[in-house]
Amino acid sequence: MVEKPTAAAHPCFDVKARHTHARVHLPVAPKCNISCNYCNRKYDCVNESRPGVCSALLSPYQAVEYLKELDTHIEKLSVIGIAGPGDPFANPEETLETMRLAKAQFPDKIFCLSTNGLNLKPYIDELALLNVTHVTITINAVDPDIGSSIYAWIRHEKKIYRGRAAAEIIIKNQLECIPLLKAKGITVKINSVILPGVNDHHIEEVAKMVASLGADVMNCIPVLPTKDTAFEDIDKPSGPLMKEVRKVAKKHLGLMTHCSRCRADAAGLLGHDFTEAYGMLREYAMRPLKSTDDRPYAAVGTREGALVNMHLGEAESLYIFKQTPSGFQFIEERVTPPAGCGDSRWKDLADSLADCRAILVEGVGAKPLKILQHAGIRVIQMSGIIDEGLEGVYYNKEVKAVKMPDAFKCGDSCRGDAQGCA
Ligand code: SF4
Ligand code: SF4
């Protein structure tokens, strides 16, 4: 059984703690495995946030480094949560790794997760072992006919489902998780997004069902109509409607009414965010993806050793540099694996750069980008002076000549054939 810290320290579960205890959401989960008709993926998850672009995404290692600094700025930072900006269990590796690293650093804090519940079940045992004590599941309907007008599609076990089939699967998975979480001693909150004319008349049934399965508390959240979504023109629930919905839900279980609909990267007291955190987040997102203790070097795609001017796919070798007290020092030229070997080319490259914390190149395809990042190598796409890029790598400085990741189109300016680096 999970040993519960006192509820008084969780600002969302105890109204008295909201003015004294702070929380932070770590934005480590970018992907989502469902499509809610009220969500625009350019914005934060409506489950636990108000619309607004997440300031930055962090790797698990970056997230915990950020947390260490944040903890020195925020008094009584008692809750560490993951709430997107996608879904924690559409990104289970990142979510669990973040929890593991954070738990090792901060064993006394409360750990909290917010999910759509589709892929939660396989991870419940591990969450309990990690001493996650609070889980929120967003359940907008328990009737698949109503659910089918709320979810456009879901991706479950590598298949896409739509309509009633999608709603049946997600509702079944969500409901199954409640008793399993309770059996582990985890506090369960249910969020329901109130969609006038769609599920407002159905909330009592949701409340009754989740209460019968053991959920502890419910949070009825008025939908925020979001541009470019199926529900962009939906009416905002009126005050009296929300009052009525909460009144009927309350017949079945306790309600949370002070939810601030926090961003997926919120930090501070509820309703009084520590806004400096957003700048800090952006800075930590530029830091190494993994610990650099055993990665002293940086690799560079260059023709002559002065400028970053080669795309990864066309670089037959990379220059390797290291930082010294007297400046950056060239170490060697390292041959890259030959073209035409598919993914194994990039995996071999990642292995050969296992001692490098970053690579500077003029452009890179999506596949090698993902493989290198997964191996903990920060990929900086830029053109210009090598030293400027290396200062970004070693001193976490902004690199002026940096390119946006999607600014590079394969084949535009390299010798590639627009099929991606192979
Ligand atoms: S679960 Fe969250 S991120 Fe995923 S579609 Fe729904 S609101 Fe958007
Ligand atoms: S979104 Fe609501 S439940 Fe989540 S941290 Fe904010 S106040 Fe708490």
Automatic annotation (TrEMBL):
Domain Radical SAM core: from-to ranges: 18-265
Entry similarity comment: Belongs to the radical SAM superfamily. NifB family.
GO biological process terms, semicolon-separated: molybdopterin cofactor biosynthetic process
Recorded metabolic or biological pathway in which this protein acts: Cofactor biosynthesis; Fe-Mo cofactor biosynthesis
Cofactor: [4Fe-4S] cluster
Keywords, in A-Z order: 4Fe-4S, Iron, Iron-sulfur, Lyase, Metal-binding, Nitrogen fixation, S-adenosyl-L-methionine
Species of origin: Arcticibacter svalbardensis MN12-7
GO MF annotation list: 4 iron, 4 sulfur cluster binding; lyase activity; metal ion binding
Role according to the record: Involved in the biosynthesis of the iron-molybdenum cofactor (FeMo-co or M-cluster) found in the dinitrogenase enzyme of the nitrogenase complex in nitrogen-fixing microorganisms. NifB catalyzes the crucial step of radical SAM-dependent carbide insertion that occurs concomitant with the insertion of a 9th sulfur and the rearrangement/coupling of two [4Fe-4S] clusters into a [8Fe-9S-C] cluster, the precursor to the M-cluster.
Official protein name in the record: FeMo cofactor biosynthesis protein NifB
Cross-referenced PROSITE patterns: MOAA_NIFB_PQQE (PS01305), RADICAL_SAM (PS51918)
PANTHER family referenced in this protein's UniProt entry, alphabetically: FEMO COFACTOR BIOSYNTHESIS PROTEIN NIFB, FEMO COFACTOR BIOSYNTHESIS PROTEIN NIFB-RELATED
Stored Pfam families: Nitro_FeMo-Co (PF02579), Radical_SAM (PF04055)
